[in-house]
Structure formats: C-alpha cells, structure tokens
Amino acid sequence: MEATTKDLRLHTAELLAAADRGETVIISYRGKRRAVLKRWQDGESESTRGERNPAFGIWSDRTGPMKM
Known about the structure:
68 residues; 3 helices; Type II toxin-antitoxin system prevent-host-death family antitoxin; alpha+beta
C-alpha cells in the first residue's frame, strides 16, 4: 500500500490498522518514497537494530557544573 505524508497526517489510524493486518505501507513525500510503515515484531529488540549511539553519554566523565 502507498500513502502520502498528507494521508499519514489525516488517516493515521487507518494506516496503522493496515500495518496491524500485516500490510507494508510506503510513505511518499512529493512523489518520492521516504519511509516504510510496517508491523512491529515483539521479538525485535533494541540491540538487534544497531549499535548504541556513540554520542550518548558524551559528557559522562565531566565533573562539576558547566561554565558558560
């Protein structure tokens, strides 16, 4: 199924229902495919999707208040 960003904004519930039925919804913006909406698999975890973002916790070794 294909939908536009306007369809996504106006008919979110219907598109989510289609994804729940197992359909893959391709979202397009200005005629170009931009995203895919599909059903979430419960067995899929955060660690299987990719590594942790290296920028997360970038200031963890910093002590004291920040000076501006």
